[in-house]
Amino acid sequence: MRTIDLRPGPDGHAAPVTDVAFRPDGSRLATASYDGTVLLWDVRDPAAPAPLTRLHHRRLVNAVRWNPVRPDVLATASADKTVAVWRVPENPDDDRPELLTVLARHLDDVNAVAWMPDGERLICVSEDGRATLWNTRTGAFAGEAGAHAAHCMMVSVGPGGLIATVGEDGLVAVTDPDRPGRSAERRCPASVEGCAWSHSGTTLAITRDDGVAELLAPDLTVIRAVTVARTAARAVAWAEDDSMFAVGAYDGCLHVFDADGRRLHQVRDARMWPRSVAVAGDRVAVGSFWNGPHVLDLTTAAPLAEPSAPTHGPNAMAVLDGELLVGCDSGTVVAFDPDADDTATGARVMPVSDSPVLSLTAADGQFYAGTYAGIVHRCNAGGELLAVTDPLGAPVPSLCRTRDLLVAGTYNGALVGLDPAALTETGRGEPHDGSVKSLVPLGDGFASAATDRTVAAGGLYDRTVLWEHGNLVNAVAVLGGRAVATASRDHTVRVGRVRAADGGEGWEVVRGATLLGPDESVKCVALLGDPESPVVLAGSYDFGLYRWRTDEEGAGLRSGRLVDEFRQGVSCMAPLDERRVAVAGWDGQILVVELDPDGEVRVSRRFDLDALAREACRRTWAVAG
């Protein structure tokens, strides 16, 4: 397994903050990040968090939790399929952190952890749906604590040892490993993203993908339901006296309610990534797309501390008038000519939004940017804002321009038709049952890929499922209107030749094949060459870029050939023409990959996104000065 190498600076993370956790006494805050590290902060002065020391995993870190008995012990959970338990000294200048044990027998990414009240046992939940119990003193596996039919997303342990787990299957399960007869289950109408027991142990708060938070009794009967947002409610944490609870939602807001469900505050900051919240005393911490956490006063919602710098991870690319556009976590779009002799001289940084740019498409001398805030921006080639949508109710991870329509795919699964000029909504098509991860033109309509495992094609309203993967589908690509390829978390790439069905109603697959990817999620895909026998290029969370030739003889299982490696996962691709594609990694590298006459691919150019952005900003400041 390759190790992330993002080289974070001394003052924060090099990628978005995925989780936050206060030490029980409130004097320390641990933050986890996509950069593969955990950063420990001294927050005794909440207005000036001071970074103390850093812990490392091989992949992104999903969760951090302090031990309830030993304040110097911290558990960290990662996509490298391990959970690490550390002893963290009070003063890192006097002593280095010590790795006490590694709980490494997980079969998939570990999403969350929670300590049992004894401070020795730890519950770990993962993408494979399992909840497992471990003895952290010996490192021994102590048994199963539950299972879900889909990804298990969060776990919380009450003061009496009652374990709650929630998952994408909508299941809320409560178990007690010390009293096996003490259990309950409840099925929700939507995926459940978060859960937290109140400090008294009398109430379980859960957050659902449909924007609802529920307060449940230990037997899972509903005490109260609260509508938080129009999009997914993701994380929840209780005030220490259980008088309030804070919810982070994918509308980009922190929501604070009293125990009776009355909304007290709604805080919007485009830099926030509220997939994680934590409370200590009168303070609440929230994750961020920038290099550090947000800290706010829980009672007044006033900001106490904010992250100091943006991160520029690339999420999407498009081509406009010969320039490559790169949409970043910072809300900027970096534009440069990939064919120029001196690329840095012409590079430009265009501030499009305060919110991360998740999707891009370009046409007719302009580009469209979809953001985490759920807003689509239309800009000219110089980055000047021409039009903007009303909020679409959820983040926009995919955009596609057809002949006379702009289509936005949202986190909620909606396919929203927009007027390409005014950006007014013209209709909502047949939705996916999950986030629409990727859109691409196909014929007079478009193809879509989503977390509901399906790939569909057609117009806004009449769509045909082309095929289904064994797990969520990250990306779809089309070549020549006839060849389609998809990349999935099931570690495969599927490629097929498609055509309009007889009578012009729908689409059908003429020929298809499944290609074996690496043993991790395949994130993005592109097709090069001849649509009848294309070369397939795909990038993975294992940092590798792979190719398959579909003209090779022989049937059976085929693995891709490694073309190149990044220092983080491969993020996105954009065709430059039928024989070239730009490939971006979350490490900021951008490659131009070419198909040669012999059907092989090679890397022809390399760019560093951060260096291009710095140079563009330097020139801008020089002109302004």
TrEMBL record:
Record's keyword terms, sorted: Repeat, WD repeat
Domain of life: Bacteria
Positions annotated as WD repeat: 10-44, 54-88, 103-144
Pfam families linked to this entry: WD40
The protein's name in its UniProt record: Repetative protein
Species of the source: Streptomyces thermocarboxydus
